[in-house]
Amino acid sequence: TFAAHHARVRLLLSEEPEFTRTGLGGYAGVLAHLNQLKPRNGVFRKEYSPDGVPENGSDPRKYFSGENAGRIDAITAQLNQWQQEGTLSETENSLLRHDLVLASNRVANIAGTYGHHRSKWGTSALASLELRPTTLLNGHRTDHIVHQGPAETVAPLIEADLCYIDPPYMKRQYAANYHIIETIARGDSPEAVGVSGLRPWRDQYSDFCSKVKIRDAFRMIFNSAQCDQFMISYSEDGLLTEEQLTELFSEVGTVSLQKIPFARFRSNAGGQGGTVMEYLFHIKR
Predict the structure, then answer these.
(1) What burial letters (b/e) apply to 227-239, b meaning 16+ CB within 10 Å?
(2) How far is residue 246's CA from residue 224's CA, in Å, rounded to a whole number?
(3) Which sequence ranges form a coiled-coil region, renumbered to this chain (predicted)?
(4) Hey, which of 24, 68, 121, 129 has its CA 20 to 30 A from 78?
(5) CB-CB contact of 182 with 204 (8 Å)
(6) How many CB atoms lie within 10 A of CB 116?
(7) Domain with CATH 3.40.50.150 in the chain
(8) Which residues contact 260 (CB under 8 A, 6 or more apart)?
């Protein structure tokens, strides 16, 4: 859901929305209003801060300070109220939830993903959550369309000269590791499961994270998207090797490959260093 909010912000907005129906004086006024809301008790303070008592009996979690978790709850409640009352347009709602996700990321007590929180507080996690205005790409075209759903499901709706595909490439499911972002983006109050408080995420399971299903997932896109060319980003750390990918993509058309070395991501000092080779495949039917 956050990806859809982000896409609307980047593709459908070339200037700040007016937020007329809020009566708060535009984007700056809306952010000022949200930033001064008093913290409240909600799902984030209860399930994801040391001030809470998780419903399933787990020890209190430390994803956010109690103050910041309460502020996420307060801002979410206001956005939900505005959305229910019809105060916000779709793009206005997406912009504010996008801003809340970014603000929450800046103060999250994590080591890269939301699979679990740190055991000790990081310095940034003790700062105060603050919504900041997003700098929009002024002057670009906004006659774009944003679809949300599994790539295999959305592919039949795509008619374009070129289709860029950037799938997950490891077994780790994004939906599980970014569950907090999804909850903020949706503005809901899901059950918090297990020690880490994961939201139920099976509705967002990706076949690209399965070595058994990944080939058919690619084929579904190739067979249904109305595109003559495809660009696919992948990694040497992925489930399929360079040779396996080339063989698969050759079913569609002529394949070329560019290899680009990148510094390997390290979430903490104990992570794996060095470089990783990223693959950029081009397919022409």
Answers:
(1) bebbebebeeebb
(2) 20
(3) none
(4) 121
(5) yes
(6) 17
(7) 147-168+206-285
(8) 277, 278, 279, 280
Q: HSE of 113 in the Cβ direction (CA atoms, 13 Å)?
A: 13
**What sign results for the dihedral spanned by CA atoms 7, 175, 148, 47?**
negative
Q: Calculate the CA 144 to chain-centre distance.
A: 20
Place of tokens 């750390």: 237
At position 61, the amino acid (one-letter code) is R
pLDDT band, very low/low/confident/very high, at 177 (cuts 50, 70, 90): confident
| E strand or H helix at 165 | strand 159-165
200-243 residue pLDDT tens = 988 888 999 999 999 999 999 999 999 999 999 999 999 999 99
Cα–Cα distance for residue pair 100/45, rounded to 1 Å: 16
DSSP 237-281: TSSS-HHHHHHHHTTTSEEEEEEEEEEPP-SSTTS--SEEEEEEE
Q: What is the pTM of this model?
A: 0.92
Determine contact, residues 245/281, Cβ cutoff 8 Å: yes
Q: Residue 24 contacts by C-beta under 8 Å, 6 or more apart in sequence?
A: 30, 32, 33
Assigned CATH for 147-168+206-285 = 3.40.50.150
Quote the CA–CA distance of 206 and 212 in Å, as a whole number: 12
Which tokens sit at 25? 């004086």
